Amino acid sequence: MTYKIKSKKLKEKETFEVKNEIPKPSANALFEIKEIKKVSIPHPYMITPKHIAVASDKFSGMLGEPAIEEAEKKGVYCDICKHRVSKGLQSEIIPYSEHKEQKTLFLQMKTDEKDLNKVEGLHSYLLKIKPLLEKEKIEGVAFIPETK
Ligand SMILES: [Zn+2]
Q: Can you give 5-73 as a three-state secondary structure string?
């Protein structure tokens, strides 16, 4: 239970307002805006106790980029990468600098059409909002399949 509350809070923190409001699709469109949030690409960077040890020994406990990069020089890497490489799900360890956060617009689909090119109005909507996405530095658009 505690875990659930914690993760909900985290999710709220990741969602944020944009300065230039993205125009909503029309009410009868086959899709709607769900949210805009930061997503970790390809996954969040997973800190290990060894990272914390380096931060505490050399950076007065500050676990920032310098501490993480110093830890990597000592062969301490992202735990998710290590796990995925050992399972053969990923070909190599990715350095900290290549774990990125990307602002993403999530669109909820209201149709079961899997081919996005066939969703009426989607392409023109994306073209219309493109300049705003650029202004807000939103680099990705994700589509959430319709749930029934
Ligand atoms: Zn990783």
A: HHHHHHHHHHECCCCCCCCCCCCCCCEEEEEEEEEEECCCCCCCHHHHHHHHHHCCCCCCHHHHHHHHH
